[in-house]
Amino acid sequence: MHHAHLILGESETVRLTVSQMLEKIEDDPKVSWENYETFGIDESRGLIERSARREWSGKREIIVLAAKNYTVEAQNALLKLFEEPRAGLRFFILGRQTTDFLPTLRSR
Question: What is the 3-state secondary structure (H, E, C) of 70-107?
């Protein structure tokens, strides 16, 4: 599994699709669903800080990040995290359309 996935579409359809995908993962990872109206720089910094900590159980961790809006500053802050994620940590970023995301973030 790749370390970061951008999944686009209508909110409920995308959430259902991700839920179904996660059910098929055999090693029962720790899954964290994070929902925001707007994902800004403070939320991005908090996610980066939390992502640096390892899960004590040794399980793979998956963070599902859903927001109606992602600020440019928040996306820029996430670039380093997506370039060099720690082992065992995966991300699913949920959004409405490709143009809501910076090209540099989409390429990660």
Answer: ECHHHHHHHHHHHHCCCCCEEEEEEECCHHHCCHHHHC
